[in-house]
Fold:
Amino acid sequence: MSASSDDTPPPTWGPMRSYGRIKSRTLKPRQAALFDSLLPQIAVPEAGPVEPRALMPEATAAWIEIGFGGGEHLAAQAEQRPDTLMIGCEPFLNGVGSALRHIDERGLKNVRLHAGDARDVLARIPDGALERVMVLFPDPWPKARHHKRRLVQPETLAEFARVLRPGGLFRFATDWKDYADWTLERALKAPGLRWTADEADDWRTPWADHVTTRYEEKKLGDTPPIFLEFIRT
Ligand SMILES: C[S@@+](CC[C@H](N)C(=O)[O-])C[C@H]1O[C@@H](n2cnc3c(N)ncnc32)[C@H](O)[C@@H]1O
Structure:
């Protein structure tokens, strides 16, 4: 498989369904101004291949965070690793506004944003271009009839494996037990991904470099957080 070019047919997966809101309230004036000033400078191109080396030539690694919410985690990781390109995707516009504020306040130079469906960006990333894919506390869609709306599907797992280089990591966290089971079951079957856990504590304990997310803090799920990590074989 290779990254899509402009004339590649759209992916076969269904449309993104919003669990929360795409736009809930009027943006604060400062955030609205950043949409006009900062976002155009750091936006992932709307079409064509998404090449980490083109986005940040000096980067030594490239990560993607899918569904960054308010961007607190994305900004914190970017601040700790200025040499790593952080691609963040989030369709919730107030979340993008919040992330822009964090990026601006901290003067971060290594973040690129896509204000939309991450799958549109993934499809344009070349094979093996990333060191890490992060899906942290995704929308749980707990009702069985909505499970098909979950971000983690065999198709998305195949894309994660495709864009990761061998040795790269796919990290998934949730506080919904059924979503952890769902992801584990599918990721264990996904070609190119191997679960790194050896013992139970490995999925109960946050990763050493984990930064607590805003949604995680809300504790809305039915279990303490579960941290699943898979290595690209
Ligand atoms: C429950 S929130 C968690 C936000 C953040 N990761 C946190 O832990 O605070 C899930 C986020 O994923 C976003 N999302 C859902 N589908 C997405 C997609 N296809 N691409 C990118 N983001 C998506 C939603 O808009 C929402 O902000």
